[in-house]
Amino acid sequence: MMRGKVYLIGAGPGDPGLITEKGRRVISKADVIVYDYLANPRFLALARDDAEKIYVGKKGGDHTLSQEGINQLLVDKAKEGKIVARLKGGDPFLFGRGGEEAEVLVAHGIPFEVVPGVTSAIAAPAYAGIPVTHREHTSTFTMVTGHEDPTKEDSAIDWEALARIGTIAFLMGMKNLPRICENLLRHGKSEDTPVAVVRWGTTPRQRVVVGNLGNIVAKVEEARLGPPAIILVGEVVKLREKLNWFESKPLFGKRIVVTRTRAQASQLVESLEEYGAECIEIPTIKIVPPDTFEPLDRAIEQIETYDWLIFTSVNGVNVFFERLFGKGKDARSLARAKVAAIGVATADLIKKYGIAVDLLPEEFRAEGLLEALLKEDFSGKKVLIPRALEAREILPEKLREAGAKVEVVPAYQTVLPEEEAARLRKELAQGVDLITFTSSSTAKNLLKMLGSDAQELLSGVTLASIGPITSETLRKSGFPPQIEAKKYTIPGLVKAIVEYFVK
């Protein structure tokens, strides 16, 4: 019988950037992903399209699958010869029951590896501006489960010894917070001992309540703070006021919907997250092949006859070169043609295919490209524009007026991802601060997805546009954007968003 392998992976404390490189690598090659409530769902985007994804989360006593059921699931999938990524929040061996799962795998003769993760016991305080040790405050630190059964007569925790530790981190202890404070006070801790409770640490949803052993229970109740949270006890909590770096980010706590395709969203998402935002990827366009590649293939067959090759998007570049190479041709086929591009990202991608860009306008839209192009003599020149099936006609029209023989061929088309509409409505209902639009298509499609409810659902939501063409589309639809990038690029859009919220 075939034996697979199980990787017990620590997914870290919540910030998707805090998973290890090995953890990412294993997720990307696994056949099956078995994941918990506390494992960031963004990690699923790393998985293969054909990977099986199984949620086994436990939240507030509601268990999707019992621990015994999870153990059996890992065994069964491995016995099918599958590579299984068992994704657990924090570190798998720190109150994560990873040791129990490993024992079961050993009992069934199934190979396994442990990929350690960053524990929330250290990371959550760090993101709250609290170092768990500090030379002037304490040199001792311990981690304790706060999940003990309150009905037990005798605690397994040595509270007398614990009360002598400088910094104590309690995990999964929110329900037992009163009992934790009571035990520490009874065994020698002062009422004035500082306490911080950090909920959803390391994420843009992070909330922190600070008090002391005498008043933290009342403060947490007043703030209505619930799990998941870390309870940190010790003098180091006083450093938060000075070292609170994460919550000081200009976009901290802002929920931003990114409407680009998933394949193109990464740069925008990463940049916004760097400034503290919580990004929700809801693509409002999906890139699909055109109804036929015949016009593009026909143009590629005679590519050596063109004087100019003009690219208006990254998608057009990718499809063009994929078809070019598929025809047995390479960069040498473009030796005769000059190449023009709209935008730095498009130009950079062309260069990665080994082709120099002859013309890149200062203004990244059709009008800017036209202004630069029309300084050249296009009389009798043969021009190829591989682009989206539906796009603005100003570029080919003006080039024809200048005497060029322009061929526009569809390299791809954009369609409405209707399956995202329900998720978009759900996120808007929960509260969204801002929506980004990187093209007229993203704007038109989002409004189609919302239909007659658009006015109500977008009330109070800030809209950010990458440039004047996209802004005009929004205005014509009755939704003028509050933010427009001065430079029509992703970095330009991010800069405009940050400046808006800082003001």
UniProtKB/TrEMBL annotation:
Q: Which residues form a coiled coil?
A: none
Keyword entries, A-Z: Cobalamin biosynthesis, Methyltransferase, Porphyrin biosynthesis, S-adenosyl-L-methionine, Transferase
The domain of life for this entry's organism is: Bacteria
In this protein, which residues make up the domain named Tetrapyrrole biosynthesis uroporphyrinogen III synthase?
267-494
In terms of CDD domains, this protein maps to: HemD, SUMT
**Pathway where this protein functions:** Porphyrin-containing compound metabolism; siroheme biosynthesis; precorrin-2 from uroporphyrinogen III: step 1/1; Cofactor biosynthesis; adenosylcobalamin biosynthesis; precorrin-2 from uroporphyrinogen III: step 1/1
Q: Which GO terms describe its molecular function?
A: uroporphyrin-III C-methyltransferase activity; uroporphyrinogen-III synthase activity
Which residues belong to any copy of the Tetrapyrrole methylase domain?
5-216
EC number, UniProt record: 2.1.1.107
Biological process per Gene Ontology, one example term: methylation
Q: Which family does it belong to?
A: Belongs to the precorrin methyltransferase family.
- Name of the protein described by the UniProt record: uroporphyrinogen-III C-methyltransferase
Source organism of this protein record: Thermodesulfatator autotrophicus
- Organismal lineage: Bacteria, Pseudomonadati, Thermodesulfobacteriota, Thermodesulfobacteria, Thermodesulfobacteriales
